């Protein structure tokens, strides 16, 4: 094994786009990244679609599949694809869990909570449709949808498209024996879908909205969305919660004897609400006021180590032979750090959606608390604080492989604010200079990459030349950089290289044998 430490920096959401249009990465002043790119071995690698286990090359990359691929060196069929297959084959409805969910709500309602869009990052509206249709076929009488509005993986103000779509679908099924409708909802960044315990208050608000039926009331989701938009001007992901009523009563509070399915397949933003429904009596993250006796299931199991949730409809990918497992076998000491918003990305996602360590003695993970603010107001986020700790760790000599994720390009990119995102990218670059210096001091090797694009395309493509600019909040289909600094190597230039080729490259640089299951290294031999 090499005595030279290897440091990997994931610049979240910083992809490569040749066009200047809406490109906050090109616009940013980033002397360090430019210098690294110009003077050191580099290549472009794929971070979307089939290269990261998504159903098609039309699917943009995301942090879950990106970090999974980086951390395991292989391409696994991911949640989006597994659920598609499970629904197409109807296997999902032959499971004991589905049968129990149906039976459990014989005298009650079946609730579907989840992100209502076709973003295919956390969920897909087609999966919801399949669940509702089958519920009817299996004799469920009442279905309620609790719709989290997206605008983050899909266009910024597209909520009504999906609301209209699902309502038309439900209207087509409704008859004397079956009734489905939207019962509550709200923007995904205000209720329910917090992650990594950044803000439990969001989940508490979601609980009040979906379960207790408390909050501002409207007679339809459309009325709620249009009213909030007119009053506040905020975009979909930030719309407040709403409760739908008929005759002044909520149409779908969650009660004893109901069944609840969270139809999101991705785990980070699904775990907290799952714990609120499915955790044990020790749950103390907020006062739930009333805890209905329901059967709860996830579309997937979001954490197999911690059994969150206990019931689920699709088995998650069983990610094996991770880089961490391999490094532990060789006694290599790992250090991982990020701020809350991406902490689980460099630990849980990185290690194949596992939150337990392989070897306590060899792995050190550090979290810097994220601010709870709109990130366009603080585009530098905690990049400097992450770097303080990372530089200390590099210099300590206690670690052989260190990794970090700087969230700025992605988290600020998701706000759709171009100027702020430029500053976000510049903040990453400033810190990259500090990391590079520390790497020099210990004679280490620095790898710079990204998990997917975002900041590289900040405006929706114009349909007509004179159309107004529209912010693009979602990820991109672009490739990402891969740079090696501090090692005299030649890199492959191959259109087929992707994030899953990084693990073997890290192994090469640490001078250990890559696991036989991994995709090839990017280094030419
Ligand atoms: C989110 O959850 O914030 C977005 O849907 C995806 O962003 P990420 O994949 O970069 O976390
Ligand atoms: Co993102």
What does this structure look like?
- The chain is globular and about 75 Å long.
- It starts with 5 loop residues before the first strand and ends in a 16-residue tail after the last helix.
- The chain is of the alpha/beta class.
- It is 32% helix and 16% strand.
- The model has no long low-confidence stretch (mean pLDDT 98).
- The strands form 2 sheets. Strands 3, 4, 5, 6, 7, 8, 9, 10 and 11 form a 9-stranded mixed β-sheet that branches. It has a 7-stranded mixed β-sheet with strand order 2-16-15-1-14-12-13, with helices on both faces.
- α6 (125-137) links the parallel β3 and β4 (142-149).
- The protein folds into 2 domains: 6-77 and 318-463 and 475-509, Alkaline Phosphatase, subunit A (3-Layer(aba) Sandwich), CATH 3.40.720.10; 80-314, 3-Layer(aba) Sandwich (2,3-Bisphosphoglycerate-independent phosphoglycerate mutase, substrate-binding domain).
- It is built from 16 helices and 16 strands.
- The structure holds 3-phosphoglyceric acid (3PG) and cobalt (II) ion (CO).
- 3-phosphoglyceric acid (3PG) binds next to α3.
Structural class: alpha/beta
CATH topology of the largest domain: Alkaline Phosphatase, subunit A
- Helix count, DSSP H or I runs of 4 or more residues: 16
Helicity range of the residues? 25-40%
What shape does the CA trace take?
globular
Low-confidence stretches: none
Mean pLDDT: 98
Radius of gyration: 23 Å
Oligomer: single chain
Kindly state the number of beta strands: 16
Query: What compounds are bound to the protein?
Result: 3-phosphoglyceric acid, cobalt (II) ion
Distance between the termini: 18 Å
The main β sheet shows up as: 9 strands, mixed
Q: Regarding CATH, which class of the largest domain?
A: Alpha Beta
- The CATH homologous superfamily name of the largest domain equals Alkaline Phosphatase, subunit A
Count of domain modules: 2
CATH architecture of the largest domain: 3-Layer(aba) Sandwich
Binding site for substrate: 122, 152-153, 188, 195, 266-269, 342
Organism: Amedibacterium intestinale
Keywords: Glycolysis, Isomerase, Manganese, Metal-binding
GO molecular function, one term: phosphoglycerate mutase activity
């Amino acid at each position: 094994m090499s005595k030279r430490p290897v440091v990997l920096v994931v610049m979240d959401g910083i992809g490569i786009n040749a066009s200047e249009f809406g490109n906050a990465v090109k616009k940013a002043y980033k002397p360090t990244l430019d210098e690294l790119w110009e003077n050191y071995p580099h290549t472009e690698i794929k971070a979307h679609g089939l290269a990261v286990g998504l159903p098609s090359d039309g699917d943009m990359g995301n942090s879950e599949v990106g970090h999974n691929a980086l951390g395991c060196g292989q391409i696994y069929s991911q949640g989006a694809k597994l659920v598609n297959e499970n629904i197409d084959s109807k296997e999902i409805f032959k499971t004991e869990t589905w049968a129990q969910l149906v039976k459990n709500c014989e005298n009650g309602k079946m609730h579907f909570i989840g992100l209502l869009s076709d973003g295919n990052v956390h969920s897909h509206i087609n999966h919801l449709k399949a669940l509702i249709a089958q519920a009817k076929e299996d004799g469920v009488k009442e279905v309620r949808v609790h719709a989290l509005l997206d605008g983050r993986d899909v266009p910024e103000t597209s909520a009504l498209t999906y609301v209209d779509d699902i309502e038309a679908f439900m209207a087509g099924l409704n008859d004397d024996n079956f009734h489905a409708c939207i019962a509550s909802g709200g923007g995904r960044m205000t209720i329910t879908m917090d992650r990594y315990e950044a803000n439990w208050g969001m989940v508490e608000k979601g609980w009040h909205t979906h379960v207790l039926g408390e909050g501002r009331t409207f007679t339809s989701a459309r009325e709620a969305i249009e009213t909030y938009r007119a009053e506040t001007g905020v975009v979909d992901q930030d719309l407040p919660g709403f409760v739908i009523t008929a005759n002044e009563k909520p149409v779908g509070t969650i009660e004893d004897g109901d069944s609840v399915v969270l139809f999101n397949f991705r785990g980070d933003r699904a775990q907290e609400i799952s714990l609120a429904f499915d955790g044990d009596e020790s749950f103390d993250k907020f006062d739930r006021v009333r805890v209905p006796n329901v059967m709860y299931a996830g579309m997937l199991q979001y954490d197999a180590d911690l059994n969150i949730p206990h019931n689920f409809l699709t088995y998650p990918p069983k990610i094996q032979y991770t880089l961490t497992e391999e490094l532990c076998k060789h006694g290599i000491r790992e250090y991982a750090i990020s701020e809350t918003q991406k902490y689980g990305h460099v630990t849980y996602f990185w290690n194949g959606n596992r939150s337990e360590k392989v070897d306590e003695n060899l792995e050190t993970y550090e979290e810097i608390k994220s601010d709870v603010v709109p990130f366009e107001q603080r585009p530098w986020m905690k990049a400097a604080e992450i770097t303080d700790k990372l530089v200390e760790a590099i210099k300590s000599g206690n670690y052989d492989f260190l990794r970090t994720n700087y969230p700025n390009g992605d988290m600020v990119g998701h706000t759709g604010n171009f100027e702020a995102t430029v500053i976000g990218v510049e903040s990453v670059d400033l810190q990259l200079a500090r990391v590079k210096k520390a790497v020099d001091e210990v004679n280490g090797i620095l790898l710079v990459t990204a998990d997917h694009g975002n900041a590289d395309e900040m405006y929706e493509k114009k349909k007509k030349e004179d159309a107004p600019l529209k912010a693009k909040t979602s990820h991109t289909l672009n490739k990402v950089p891969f740079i090696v600094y501090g090692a005299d190597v030649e890199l492959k230039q191959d259109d087929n290289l992707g994030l899953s080729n990084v693990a073997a490259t890290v192994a090469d640089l640490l001078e250990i044998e890559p696991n036989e299951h991994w995709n090839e290294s990017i280094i030419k031999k």
